[in-house]
Amino acid sequence: MVDTVANAQLTPGVTxxxxxxxxxxxxxxxxxxxxxxxxxxxxxxxxxxMWSEHCSYKSSKVHLAxxxxxxxxxxxxxxxxxxxxxxxxxxxxxxxxxxxKIESHNHPSYVEPYQGAATGVGGIVRDILAMGARPIxxxxxLRFGPLDAPDTARVLPGIVxxxxxxxxxxxxxxxxxxxxxxxxxxxxPLVNALCIGVMKKQDLHLAFAxxxxxxxxxxxxxxxxxxxxxxxxxxxxxFEADGPVKRPSVQVGDPFMEKLLIECTLELFAAGxxxxxxxxxxxxxxxxxxxxxxxxDGGMRVNLDVVPLRDPSLAPEEIxxxxxQERMMAVVEPGNVERFMEICAKxxxxxxxxxxxxxxxxxxxxxxxxxxxxxDPKTVAHDGPVYQRPLARPDWMDALYADxxxxxxxxxxxxxxxxxxxxxxxxxxxxxxxxxxxxYDRYVRGNSVLAQPEDSGMIRIDEETGLGVALATDAxxxxxxxxxxxxxxxxxxxxxRNVAVAGAEPVAITDCLNFGSPEDxxxxxxFSEAILGLVDGCQTLGTPVTGGNVSFYxxxxxxxxxxxxxxxxxxxxxxxxxxxxxxxxxxxDQIYLLGATLPEFGGSAWADIVHHHLGGMPPMPNLEAERxxxxxxxAAAKAHLLxxxxxxxxxxxxxxxxxxxxxxxxxxxxxLPEGDPTVELFSESPARAIVxxxxxxxxxxxxxxxxxxxxxxxxxxVTVTPELEIRDLATLSLDALRATWQAPIRVAxxx
Amino acid sequence: MSVRIGVVTxxxxxxxxxxxxxxxxxxxxxxxxWHLAHDLEGVDAVVLPGGFSYGDYLxxxxxxxxxPIMSEIIDAANKGMPVLGICNGFxxxxxxHLLPGAMIRNEGRTFVCTDQRLRVETxxxxxxxxxxxxxxxxxxxxxxxxxxxxxxxxxxxxxDSNRVVFRYLGNPNGSANDIAGITNERGNVVGxxxxxxxxxxxxxxxxxxxxxxxxxxxxxxxxxxx
Lengths: 751, 226
Hints:
The complex is a heterodimer of chains A (751) and B (226). With 751 residues, chain A is an alpha+beta fold. Chain A has a domain at 5-61 and 204-381: Phosphoribosyl-aminoimidazole Synthetase, Chain A, domain 2, CATH 3.90.650.10. Chain A is built from 26 helices and 29 strands. In chain A, the strands form five sheets. A seven-stranded mixed beta sheet of chain A has the order 1-2-3-4-7-5-6. Chain A has a seven-stranded mixed beta sheet with strand order 9-11-8-12-10-13-14. In chain A, strands 24-26-23-27-25-28-29 form a seven-stranded mixed beta sheet. In chain A, α7 packs parallel to α10. Residues 235-247 of chain A have low confidence and may be disordered. By secondary structure, chain B is α/β, with parallel strands linked by helices. Chain B has a single domain (4-225), classed as 3-Layer(aba) Sandwich (Rossmann fold), CATH 3.40.50.880. Chain B contains five helices and eleven strands. In chain B, the strands form two sheets. Chain B has a nine-stranded mixed beta sheet with strand order 2-1-3-4-11-10-9-6-7, sandwiched between helices. A two-stranded antiparallel sheet of chain B has the order 5-8. Chain B is globular and about 45 Å long. Classes of the chains: A alpha+beta (751), B alpha/beta (226). Chain A binds chain B through residues 157, 161, 164-165, 168-171, 254-257, 259-260, 347-348, 437-449, 460, 463, 576-577, and chain B through 11-12, 14-15, 17-18, 21, 50-52, 54-57, 110-114, 140, 142, 144, 195, 197-198, 201, 203-205.
């Protein structure tokens, strides 16, 4: 029989499986205290899932609060929505606003790579949709164990097929991301998914349920037994213990349903009949009902037994916790329900009135006329535990710092330098990623101005004016391991730079903070340092944090992943016709290096590939220099001074030159600046870029750099010969470089 | 009066807006057509766009083929109206038996998105008459099930009757005879896997080789009226 509120009052002594549901003893006591009785099993299901790390941010909250101290001002005006909403919203010019957010789907993607990755894309797309925006592009930063490890051959193709299979079927271009390999991600791949959407400013919708009598409508897919996780424990406690084995805990996605949900929801928005809306993601109905109700000005009553089910054997606890995909919940005035249903019918989308907004402040859920949940929704959605987890700088950091990469031997013979250039080009982290990205549709919607392997993805928003946005995501876990504060700033710097070199003005960021166990003080220290780094960095760069996601417990056995604070930067470009692509294009163009190069090898690709070394300090971020470089690049793009611009990061100038040549198969002849050639070629000092431009524009561009205090060094010129010539050092054929660059992933995945 | 070109939206169509944009840029009048409609709204030609109509459940294009608008399109095509099927639209045309053969999964088993080189094999169709025979063009290709197959007799018939319109240069998916696109006997119905609607703007594509598809049909229709 179902565990009702009345029953809970009569049976205070019943033993409940709170520990199995992941609650701590004091958390369970707190729930009893809030309710003044024991929770029903349905209430216990809701609290346990909403108070989980994933939903409540209980370990990260006190640190994330620091983002709130940042100004909400972007270079294009104040944020229209920020942290706490389903996604941040930024005005970009005219009536246009964009919303963007990044989230993780790491653990499900290891268990079931295809579905885990696919539903990661699906979830972030619904977050964007719930803001009232049309999703227009996605990006996927991915991290795997070693490329040649056996399980990578299972995990990588599955995840890539999942990202592609879902995004391609939604008709969303995939315009960028990252692919990284490191042993710490073996057994714990990272699948982060970013989505961007566009809307008119006046169409912004925030999630809340208000207006007594308004109807609560659940629409989209029917609810099934996927992703119910711990709820099975409750069901088996409450129901027959020897019932059917419950279904897998990884959700299964249906992109066709999501495509219909997108078009249907946008038509509902356009009809002006949505009062409040929320997508169903983690914690399913528990989350949607408690968050919608607590954000509104009244209570909510829900009849759980009318929820359409794919599996009629589901218990109410399971229905509340189910993470079945492709579902949304809307609050609609009674007079608009008929029109709502018509639009859903047009798109073959199932819609059911499951409840209504009530007076008072209670969320009451019934099951066949019996009350099974009677709670203050705020206690479920917002009053979860907050932990001040212990944190301490790990002792092992001292040993790292005592072992600087700058002290490693450097072989400056031309032969060794040439061999290292080629070795870097053919290393997993720097090689061609097209085996992966060619499985993603980058063309659909017809607005992709730049896509991978360009430094950032760029999307045209307004076909009349050419107004557009650029996005880049970056993180270097090796840097962040050496120093999480600086590592987070370097991730921010690089994404910021990647947007700027394309000619877009960076305006705001989102972040996906992937870390190990928060119960380990070392990891909490890394996490808190990374946040401080981002807060300080964003302050200097003038880019607010609009929202994001935290993923903890990324560990395999005793090994935590490299701290991986992925930063996504949004840039705005007034006219996408002005964009600067990354590849050399015109023979005779002059090639210049922008920025200062210092001997900085900590965490670098050179230290990794040549010396298998990880120690010392990462390169020192220089945010003022990044800002100056960005200002220069945006102005240069607007004035059409440059043929190409390419950010320098992992692999330094060496890798940057190779990539700029290979992009359009155009050669270059350069001479390294004076100094140690290993430093000039492989240092990873930030705030640098290489550009090519016609000789006619050199004077104007030099003046622009001088105005902004950006150092400028001539390297050489673009040639007609398909070779990269580094004078007095090496001449490398582009065909050979391309073959080396293309091989690693293709060879590893050939089977 | 400008030529009116309809673009059908099925549930799961993805490149319908791209096709409408390409029609607009070509100077014709775009007319969105809904899959449940029983009326072609007087259009002069129809594009069946790319995507995953009805989720590609059962087989790619198999359900879309039975939608109400397809009965109208099949009738009109049999009377000579120009119809272009792109990617999923090509699959729908095969399922509707307006074109022979079928698409199976790519040989490499993965989704492939690439700038594909093609050779124009015939300009004797309403959708390719603005190309030169033998012309090499680049068109975006993106699909998971683009591997064209037909019986040996059908392939021979297509070759003998000059009905292979586009052939891959560097076969990306295992298609028989490198076939990228074919036409019907009359030359008014063309289906191809690559996406010409993505190659109409220099800002978003490496070539503008999609434009002649839309100019071809307008030249043909104008000549018909003239």
